Amino acid sequence: MKCSFCEYPLLCKACGQPFVARSAEAHVAMSQPDMEVYCPECQAVLACKACGYVYGESGEETESS
Ligand SMILES: [Zn+2]
Ligand SMILES: [Zn+2]
């Protein structure tokens, strides 16, 4: 499937495997910024290899304040 952010094919940034949402739940999670999506291959939090968008970093922005 495609990255919902950059429209490129969604590859896991950690392991490079294409992400396939195998359940309806995963599809929903993809569109919910506050839900974490995990790579089924390496169990890392899914991040798009193309644009670096992370699926599930809710409230964990590490901006220096
Ligand atoms: Zn992307
Ligand atoms: Zn992975």
**Nearest-integer average pLDDT:** 85
Bound molecules: zinc ion
Oligomer state equals: single chain
Uncertain segments are none
Number of helices: 1
Termini Cα gap: 36 Å
Following the backbone from N to C, one meets helices and strands in this order, namely: H
Question: What does this 3D model show about the protein?
Answer:
- The protein contains one helix and no strands.
- It has 65 residues and is largely without helices or strands.
- It has one domain.
- One zinc ion binds at residues 3, 5-6, 8, 48, 50-51, 53.
Quick description:
This protein is largely without helices or strands and 65 residues long. It has one helix at residues 24-31. Bound molecules: zinc ion (2 copies).
Fold topology:
Elements: H1 24-31
List keywords for this structure.
little secondary structure; binds zinc ion
